[in-house]
Amino acid sequence: MSRRRDPDDLIARAGRGDPRQDQHFLVDDRVLDRIPTYAEEFDTEHALEIGGGTGALTDRLLAVADHVTVIERDRDFARFLRTEFDGAIDEGRLSVVQGDALEVNFPAYTVCISNLPYGIATEVAFRLLGEREPAVLMFQTEVADRMAAEPGTSEYGRLSVAAQHFARVEIVEPVPPEAFDPQPAVDSAIVRLTPREPDYRVPDEDDFLSLVKAMFTQRRKTVRNAIRNTTHISGLADGDAVVEALDEEVLSRRPDALEPAAFARIATVAAEVQ
Ligand SMILES: C[S@@+](CC[C@H](N)C(=O)[O-])C[C@H]1O[C@@H](n2cnc3c(N)ncnc32)[C@H](O)[C@@H]1O
Fold first, then answer.
1. Does ligand 1 have an atom closer than 6 angstroms to the CB of 100?
2. Pocket test residue of 9, 10, 16, 21 for ligand 1, highest count of atoms within 8 A of CB
3. Which SUPFAM superfamilies match (predicted)?
4. Which CATH superfamily hosts domain 205-273?
């Protein structure tokens, strides 16, 4: 790779990040250089970056992608990115979108590679999962662990089921606070999401995710009670009918022990009896 921009130089010119705005900029060149390598097996024709900041990662993405779209909420950093990368913009290789990543439309990207703003990382993850495109994302470790968690663990929850439903989830690198400026109060980890078809079917994706969301509000109850108590969240018209149609084996388990396929089975039975 040719010489990339120095992250400390970028901060010196763009200004330091404000932690209250989720602005923790990567300053460790080795981590910055490694991030695109985790996407080597993916189509990097159009990379989406959420939260461009001073552009240290944008610079690395421009070295591997034909086109990069950066979404940055902060007006000053968005303006800085447009000036700093005016050459790439003139060549038609970079688009800078100033706005909130939870609100703006995503372009038709082929891979998302981002050091996410942690305050909205879980919501962004749900949004990205629905896009069914590959991703390499920096999260705080606690969120990365939840995505990769196995049934029966305290980290296992709605995010685990959704992530594993859409993708193979791999934690590819732990990243310490010292890699950032300013340093976050938490440890971080890079997660790779490789889209895949699950080995089970769901009748309707939205209904499945609503059911999972509902059941995890009662994660330590039995499945029987969780189904009955959460119809206002799951949208099930008749929770009792669903319970009656399910086997005792699943009804007596707890939602936090159910693998994604078991939630899919409940969603299938629910669709049949509604
Ligand atoms: C953790 S920093 C990463 C910056 C840069 N990519 C890097 O790696 O150094 C997150 C960036 O997301 C931006 N941001 C925060 N909330 C955002 C939102 N809702 N939508 C888009 N960008 C946001 C912040 O201004 C900040 O620049």
1. yes
2. 21
3. S-adenosyl-L-methionine-dependent methyltransferases
4. rRNA adenine dimethylase, C-terminal domain (1.10.8.100)
